[in-house]
């Protein structure tokens, strides 16, 4: 199985490293031709508005959207979660997504860059031990549709608990960045449970 990492912007190198740590040689994806060669995709953290605009410039936005709709296993972290959400709150005017997961995410829900933080969170479906989660201008999930499985939640500044890791069939998304920790259990879960 060939796993690609969307390498237009954001921390795609960290995802490639995480794949290597899991024994998988990932490939960078920037063009429709490179997309055709992969079986699964990771959308990195970064800035969702920039990812959209570069994906359009590279004419890979619609091809990715179609592959996702046709069932390509895809994992998105942070900005990648936003890209996989069907709906966004606090979006930039007219901001589009690839969509696929029936959720509404709130961009920058956990605050601005200075409000970035780390925490150990419980995600029993992914790992028996708590997962080290790093949140950087992270979204949270505000509405969850039928068929979406919540894998982890975290309390926001509003005092309520919000989903921060979700799965809908072949699609997986986390509001946090496992790729910049040395805990690769989310990547392993993606490779072993979502891609198979
Ligand atoms: N706030 C960013 C966005 O809207 C996501 C931040 C991140 O990926 N660390 O795309």
TrEMBL record:
InterPro entries for this protein: Class_I_gatase-like (IPR029062), Haem_peroxidase (IPR002016), PdxT/SNO (IPR002161), PdxT/SNO_CS (IPR021196)
Cellular compartments per GO CC: cytosol; glutaminase complex
Annotated Pfam families: SNO
Record carries keyword Lyase: yes
Enzyme Commission no: 3.5.1.2
Keyword annotations: Glutamine amidotransferase, Hydrolase, Lyase, Pyridoxal phosphate
Residue stretches making up the Plant heme peroxidase family profile domain: 22-196
A single MF term (Gene Ontology): glutaminase activity
Catalytic activity, as annotated: L-glutamine + H2O = L-glutamate + NH4(+)
A GO BP annotation: pyridoxine metabolic process
Matching SUPFAM superfamilies: Class I glutamine amidotransferase-like
HAMAP family: PdxT
Family the UniProt entry places it in: Belongs to the glutaminase PdxT/SNO family.
Stated name of the protein: glutaminase
Species the sequence originates in: freshwater metagenome
């Amino acid at each position: 199985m060939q796993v690609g990492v969307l390498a237009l912007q954001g921390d795609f190198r960290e995802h490639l490293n995480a794949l290597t740590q899991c024994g998988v040689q990932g490939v960078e994806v920037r063009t429709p031709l490179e997309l055709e060669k992969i079986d699964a995709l990771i959308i990195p953290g970064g800035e969702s508005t920039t990812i959209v605009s570069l994906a359009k410039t590279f004419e890979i936005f619609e091809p990715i959207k179609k592959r996702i709709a046709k069932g390509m296993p895809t994992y998105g972290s942070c900005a990648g979660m936003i890209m996989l959400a069907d709906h966004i709150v606090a979006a930039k005017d007219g901001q589009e997504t690839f969509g696929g997961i029936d959720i509404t995410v709130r961009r920058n829900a956990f605050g601005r860059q200075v409000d970035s933080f780390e925490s150990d969170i419980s995600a029993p479906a992914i790992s028996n031990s708590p997962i080290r989660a790093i949140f950087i201008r992270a979204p949270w999930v505000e509405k969850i549709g039928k068929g979406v499985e919540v894998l982890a939640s975290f309390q926001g500044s509003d005092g309520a608990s919000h989903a921060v890791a979700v799965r809908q069939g072949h699609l997986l998304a986390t509001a946090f960045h496992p790729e910049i920790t040395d805990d690769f259990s989310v990547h392993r879960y993606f490779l072993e449970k979502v891609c198979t």
